[in-house]
Amino acid sequence: MSVTDATPRRPVRKLAALAACVLLAAGCAKAGTAGTSAEAGGGGGDRSPVKVGLVYSRTGPLAAYGKQYLEGFKAGLAYATKGSNAVDGHPVEIAEQDDAGDPAKAVSAAKDLIGKNYRILAGSTASGVALQVGPIAAQNKVLFISGPAAADKVTGLNKYTFRSGRQSYQDTKAAASFIGDAKGKKVTVLAQDSAFGQANVAAVKDVLGAEGATVDAVLAPPSATDLTPFATQAKAAKPDLLYVAWAGDTAAALWTSLNQQDVFAATKVVTGLDVAASYPLFGPAAEKIDFLNHYFAGAAGGTDAELAMTDAVTKAGSKPDLFTPDGFTAAQMVVHALEANKGSDADTAALVKALEGWSFDGVKGKLTVRAEDHALLQPMFQVKLTGSGAAAKPTAEKILSAEQVAPPVATMAG
Fold first, then answer.
1. Nearest to 147 by CA among 219, 204, 69, 223
2. Which of 25, 125, 307, 368 could, after both became Cys, cross-link 359 (CB 3.0–4.6 A)?
3. Beta-sheet pairing, 214-220 with 186-192
4. Rounded CA separation 327/58 (Å)
């Protein structure tokens, strides 16, 4: 359906500035600097558990994405540890915290976990959440692996913050691949006025604007339920390309409005293919849309990791979907960092060092954690949706290499 993330409601730059000012409460700070404590170390005969805190959207508008992430993480942990759920004899224990897509709840959960001596945090379905939790991780020297949150600002946020999913720039490069020479063309971004939406606007300006396109935006409040006025504005802009960046449970209303306003006949529409449950929402218009895609079930053509993820998730009674690989990849990263340190999470700097520059075989193929800014370099997909309603099926028309969609190197902020 849409270029997806998860961030219902918050401006990126303001959130990043606020997050940089947040300090751990005194009640949690008494636990000390988590990244330097020796208490959780592993060597020798010590086989104490390694505690990993997952702060993600178990409820809220992005709960479906959070569910996929969690299922993927559990499958990835089993895969990376060969079924033991332990590293070097240290059991990996997971604590789940629900942020409901709310940065304030996420910060509170992160503080609580850090105060309980958790040195590894993962999750962040929403961009606004990731931009708040990242600075908390840096202030307390804990490893943080953000999940589906797509805002570009997460890359290079600080040396303790990584990501297990794609970012908005990679979405935009995938979208740009559909229109060829952008010089002289007009591009309109239809998005929510949120961290995710604004990140997409910025990314389109950075990519297509730099290639000579004129870029404007139509932004809707995340709380808006009547989306007809915004569909009308998008059509009236008369763009050569309408780039739709949308997330959450108002997507059905958006596509209904676009259909009613006959936008598909007026311009070329490119958007991201969302979760499988969204496919029927496009109706007959589905075959007229060009989809960029992060992942759909079977997109990777059967890598070892994809087959293992599919098997594990299916046996658990579910199905792989858009953000299942993000959880799977996060678990692979956690296990690799711990393996490099003999199962110990005591030295956060060593965990960080183990991940920087690491290339590995993931669900989508070869993935690389770029050392300079912790971007996750990965392939993306051009996809067509054929059929309508319950019969709608995605097909990967083209695989875009990690190099084709790689974001520019960001300056590490701290």
1. 69
2. 368
3. parallel
4. 13
Nearest to 138 by CA among 10, 24, 28: 24
Question: Is-above-0.90 flag for pTM?
Answer: no
Quote the pLDDT of residue 203. 86
Residue 274 and residue 2: Cα distance in Å, rounded? 5
Non-local (6+) Cβ contacts of 182 within 8 A are 176, 208, 211, 212, 213
Contact 165, 323 (CB under 8 A): yes
pLDDT for 39: 39
Residue 132 main-chain phi, psi, to 5 deg: -95, -40
Q: How many C-beta atoms surround the C-beta of residue 304 within 10 A?
A: 11
100-142: pLDDT as tens digits: 999 999 999 999 999 999 999 999 999 999 999 999 999 999 9
For tokens 């932004």, the residue is 219
Whole-Å CA distances, 198 to 221, 232, 238, 258, 407: 11, 20, 21, 20, 17
Type and span of the H or E element at 264: helix 263-266
The answer for residues whose C-beta is within 8 angstroms of residue 258's C-beta and 6 or more apart is: 231, 234, 244, 264, 269, 285
Q: Dihedral, CA atoms, 55, 58, 63, 64, nearest 10 degrees?
A: 100
Strands 365-369 and 359-362: antiparallel
Give Cα 348 distance to the centre of its chain: 23
- How far the first Cα of the chain sits from its last, in Å, is 36
- The answer to whether residues 125 and 62 touch, using CB atoms and an 8 Å cutoff, is yes
A 10 A CB-CB count for 157 gives: 30
pLDDT score, position 5: 52
Contact 400, 170 (CB under 8 A): no
Highest mean pLDDT of the ranges 7-21, 41-55, 218-232, 239-253:
218-232
d(CA 126, CA 138): 19
b (16+ CB within 10 A) / e for 23-45 = ebeeebeebeebbebeebbbeee
